[in-house]
Amino acid sequence: xxxxxxxxxxxxxxxxxxxxxxxxxxxxxxxxxxxxxxxxxxxxxxxxxxxxxxxxxxxxxxxxxxxxxxxxxxxxxxxxxxxxxxxxxxxxxxxxxxxxxxxxxxxxxxxxxxxxxxxxxxxxxxxxxxxxxxxxxxxxxxxxxxxxxxxxxxxxxxxxxxxxxxxxxxxxxxxxxxxxxxxxxxxxxxxxxxxxxxxxxxxxxxxxxxxxxxxxxxxxxxxxxxxxxxxxxxxxxxxxxxxxxxxxxxxxxxxxxxxxxxxxxxxxxxxxxxxxxxxxxxxxxxxxxxxxxxxxxxxxxxxxxxxxxxxxxxxxxxxxxxxxxxxxxxxxxxxxxxxxxxxxxxxxxxxxxxxxxxxxxxxxxxxxx
Length: 369
Ligand SMILES: Cc1cc2nc3c(=O)[nH]c(=O)nc-3n(C[C@H](O)[C@H](O)[C@H](O)COP(=O)(O)OP(=O)(O)OC[C@H]3O[C@@H](n4cnc5c(N)ncnc54)[C@H](O)[C@@H]3O)c2cc1C
Hints:
The chain is an alpha+beta fold. It has helices at residues 14-25, 43-46, 60-79, 96-105, 118-123, 143-150, 245-249, 255-264, 296-302, 330-347, 361-366; strands at residues 4-10, 30-34, 50-51, 84-85, 89-92, 114-117, 131-135, 139-141, 155-158, 165-167, 170-173, 176-183, 200-210, 218-220, 224-225, 232-240, 271-282, 289-294, 316-324. Residues 10-16, 33-36, 41-44, 46-50, 160-161, 184-186, 188, 204-206, 224, 236, 238, 278, 280, 324, 326-332 line the site of flavin-adenine dinucleotide.
C-alpha cells in the first residue's frame, strides 16, 4: 500500500465499490477504506440485492431508476456475470390500490416484460395471484462476492475514518494523503455537515433459507423472494423506520417477512440458515446523492440572507464528493451513479441535475428559520 492516492473512497458498500471501479477505469489511483470490511455490515451486507425495474406511471424517479436498471443489468452481466443471476423477477400486486393502477402502469414500463395470468403464475409456484409482470432481464446479485470482485484490483484498507483534514492541497486520512475524497458511507454521515441532503436510514432484514422448493424466478410484492439458487431462497425487505432497529423488531427481524412469504409461495420446508440486518440510506426526495458537497458553514455565515430566499453563488468543499442515498435499490443505482461520479471528478462532466445534491440546499436553508 502506498501513502499517496489520487482518490480515497470511504465506504466499501456497493456505492463505494462502483465509484472506485469507474475511477480506476479512468486510470486513477484509488484506495477504498471501510471500518468493517467489504460489504460487511452496511446496507450492502443485508441486501437481497435484487436487480429489478421500477413500475409506476412514468414519474421522474421511475425513469431514472429504469435507466440505472438497464445500465446495471449490462454492467453486471458483462463484467461480473458470476455474481449476477438473471433469474427474472415477477412483480406482484401489493394490494387493492396497486391492483387498480396495475394495467395503467403498462405503458410506462420501459424494461422488457410479459404479463402473466393466474395459470402461468401457478406454474411458477405463486399462490393466489391473478396477474403480474415478469421482467426476464431482472435478477439477483451475490452482494458480498460482487462487491469484492468489483474492487479486486483496487487497494483496500480496513480503517475507521473519524476525522478528515485538508492541508496543502491534500486530504489526510491517518497517515494517507489523497487529492480527492469520495464519501460512500451509507446512512452514517457525521464527518461533515451534510444535513441539507437529509440522509435517513431505513432498517431492513433478510433471511437465507434452505429449501427444495423449485422456484425458478424471483418475485417482489411487499417483500422480495429469490428463486432457488443452489438450494437457498432469500427473503428480504427494508421496512422499519427506526434509529434503534433491534428494539422495534423485538429480536425477530424475519417474523413479518416469513408471514408474507407464506402467502406468496409454499414456504413449508423453508429452514432458516442465516439472518442479516442492515440500514439503507435515502435522501429527502428519494433520488440518489451524487456530486460535490456544499460548504454549509461558510454559506450560512457568509450569506445569512440565504435563510430568507437569497440565492448566492454556491461554495463547495474542495475535492470532496459523495455517492449516497441509493435507497431500496442500491444495487440497481450504484453502477450508473459510480460512472456519473467518475465522469464528473475526472472528466469534469456536468452532474445529472436529478442526482446532484445541490438541488436540496436552498430549500433546506429556507426551512431553517
Ligand atoms: C434488508 C435490505 C434489503 C435490500 N434489498 C435490496 C435489493 O434487493 N436490491 C437493491 O438494489 N438494494 C437493496 N437494498 C438497498 C441497498 O442495500 C442499499 O441501497 C445499498 O447497500 C447502499 O449501499 P452503500 O454503499 O451506499 O451503503 P452501505 O452498504 O451501508 O455501505 C457504507 C459503508 O461505509 C462504511 N463506513 C461508514 N462510515 C465510515 C467511516 N467513517 N469510516 C470507514 N468506513 C465507514 C460502513 O462500514 C459501510 O460498509 C436493501 C437494503 C437492505 C437493508
